[in-house]
Amino acid sequence: MKFSKMNGCGNDYVFIYLPENKVTHPNELAVKLSDRHFGVGADGLVLMDQSLLADCSMRIFNRDGSEANMCGNALRCVAKYMYDKRLVTKEEVSVSTLAGVKTVKLQTANGKAVGAKAELGVPSLMSIETKRAVNCLAKIGEKAYEITPVELGNYHAVRFVKNLSQKEMRIAESLSRSSLFPDGVNAEIAKVIDRENIIARVYERGSGETMACGTGAGAILFAAFLKGLTGPKVNIRLPGGVLEVEYVKGKIMITGPAKFNFEGAL
Asked: 0.85 exceeded by the pTM?
């Protein structure tokens, strides 16, 4: 079985192209390959395949084997894989996901994709305890924390904080398992620097803290924009790098790098 290790802003995955490989138990394989001590090491597993709906399809499995609907960083990497391997010859690639068909416009140099601008879809506020609101309260232990619940392919709970401390990340970890979200949630903590810049950290359901999260960055911008904290375009600095996020005509667009780490065989 051949695989590629790729990352978008340090959010790394093992990518397997199914027309050339057979995968029978993707959940178990994701756990095995993602182990950073006994496996390849990654935030999860991405299976790429042919599609009748788009240029290709992708399925994402988190580090714990659970399946995610979407991943903005993996999406850019899939488009790069298809272009670099000459499986598509155009610089705009469509990818079918569990959250619908997404379009990626590649930035290329010397016949290779070096970055991409991806359309993540239409964000919306999630319904928490039968209501949709920009400001909701989530109780962790004896304390309640203000969050903005956002759906953008995946489910997100965004908190704006004064600092990105380990204490705040422990709250994010607890929030990701809150009973408010029966299927779990990606929890983001974010600090607004000014109307065009935000710094953030993310605790992803099924993977833990990651270097970056594409849909998480989109959820942060959407929440910040609804609260009047920023304009419709911001740079979000995560531990793995910077993602440029825009809210355009009701959709979230995200621009960032897509890089090959290495290839191998199992």
From this structure: yes
